[in-house]
Amino acid sequence: MVITIDPASPVAPFEQIRVQVAEQARAGVLPAGTRLPTVRGLAGELGLAPNTVARAYRELESDGVIETRGRSGSFVATVGDTAHRAASEAAIEYARRAHRLGLTREEATATALDAIGAAYGGT
């Protein structure tokens, strides 16, 4: 795993770590099951505070990119399955909330598509 931090970047270091690990996992550079360095180990390598790396790992775990197995460490998760499951759960929650708010199916769909367009840079 190769992670580089640009101290001049306006992007916070934890976010730089998160993005790079996620991209490497999705590209297969970090295959599912790959053990990640410990928080302290990676922090030491990068010259960052352990809390910075811990935050990146927490967000990666929340996104389903990695999984923590207690004292065994953190590992790259099976990204496709985990990511699709998390996205499905988010979509179900959105649909339920939109229904409770009284939106029609068409209004809920249009709102979701607008949000997806904004998240993907207007594409």
* Oligomerization state: single chain
Total tally of structural domains: 2
Q: Give the strand line-up of the largest sheet.
A: 1-2
Spatial extent as radius of gyration? 17 Å
Order of helices and strands: HHHEEHH
**CATH class call of the largest domain:** Mainly Alpha
DSSP, total strands:
2
Précis, in short:
The protein has 123 residues and is mainly alpha-helical.
Description:
- The protein has two domains: 13-77, Winged helix-like DNA-binding domain superfamily/Winged helix DNA-binding domain (Arc Repressor Mutant, subunit A, Orthogonal Bundle), CATH 1.10.10.10; 80-119.
- It is 59% helix and 5% strand.
- The chain has five helices and two strands; from the N terminus they run αααββαα.
- The chain has helices spanning 13-27, 39-46, 50-62, 79-100, 105-119, and strands at 66-68, 74-76.
- Strands 1-2 form a two-stranded antiparallel ribbon.
- The longest helix is centred in the last third of the chain and has 22 residues, at 79-100.
Record keyword descriptors for this entry.
123 residues, mainly alpha, Arc Repressor Mutant, subunit A, two-stranded antiparallel sheet, 59% helix
